[in-house]
Amino acid sequence: MKCRACRAPAVVEIRRHNTTLCRHCFLGYCRNQVGRAIRDHDMIGPGQRVLVAVSGGKDSLALWDMLLDLGYDADGVYVGLGIDGYSQPSADHARAFARRRQARLVEVDLRQQYGYDVRSGAAADHRAPCSACGLSKRHIFDRAAVEGGYDVVATGHNLDDEAAVLLGNVLRWDLEYMARQRPVLPGGHGFPKKVKPLVRLAERETAAYCVLQGIDYQVEECPMAAGNRHLGYKEALGLIEERSPGAKAVFFGQFLERAAAALAGASAEAGGAVLHPCPSCGAPTSSELCAFCRLVERAGGDPRRRVPVSGR
Ligand code: Q46
Ligand code: ZN
């Protein structure tokens, strides 16, 4: 098997592009895909500071690595979720990567900082663990970006993630969620801009990227993910992709090209809720107290603790 680009021995096959690539050309291909997503969707402007939401998994570490290689001013933020047997090794991978690249990692620990973990927060707020986790991470990423003076928050959502979310939204015809499912969410009203530069790369490509770059990452799935719907959608799309290589990229790519803008326009016309600063933490909210502060209070913590912006 030879590299289609340079004829050296190939190490990766990308079936949806009907190609095989050597290490050097594959790493270049990944960086090109990320660069193209950033340009096509106007994700990061010249001189802008980026905060990468880092989980210690392959996607976020590959993203951080590529942004640094592409010359972006990119720091990381890691949230310790307090999930036994999972959070500690995840943090170790994030820290090891930051050390290796001499990059700055901002760390926030839910237990130390706010007095709860994902499991106890979910129970106190009568939510599913992933709902409490998502709410906490979104809030902390947003606050860390705003308080740290970052222009953009970048997350490691890849093509498989986005296609699976789209499938879930389509199965429910949830037009509101579909309207917001874009690779870029503009900032404003106290929210930072959010971007997903990995939308052109599949999950197995970010894994191969990490292996070929020698990046150690958390290979275990979060134990809370077992049996969740998102994984089911991924599996279903995996079966379709197996038979029709490229189906996932077409499914999501054509959604962006043909439907996303129209849906976003319709939702903007419908108008959004009126936002005001949360009296406890200052984050924009449409309710009296923001959902994050409600969760922290119910879990017995102190929502006024601010996100530290110091890093190592
Ligand atoms: S980390 Fe958090 Fe995921 Fe674990 S608790 Fe659920 S949402 S599955 S990205
Ligand atoms: Zn609040």
What do you see in this structure?
The strands form three sheets. A six-stranded mixed β-sheet has the order 5-4-3-6-8-7, with helices on both faces. Strands 1-2 form a two-stranded antiparallel ribbon. By secondary structure, it is α/β, with parallel strands linked by helices. Helix 1 crosses helix 9, helix 7 packs across helix 10 and helix 7 packs across helix 11. The chain contains twelve helices and ten strands. It is globular. The longest helix is centred in the C-terminal third of the chain and has 24 residues. It has one domain: Rossmann fold. Bound molecules: Fe4 H S5 and zinc ion (ZN). Fe4 H S5 binds next to helix 6. The site of Fe4 H S5 (Q46) has 8 residues, from helix 6.
How would you briefly describe this protein structure?
The protein has helices at residues 23-40, 58-69, 87-101, 110-114, 118-124, 129-148, 159-172, 175-180, 203-213, 229-243, 247-270, 291-298; strands spanning 12-14, 19-21, 49-54, 73-80, 105-109, 152-154, 184-185, 193-195, 276-277, 284-285.
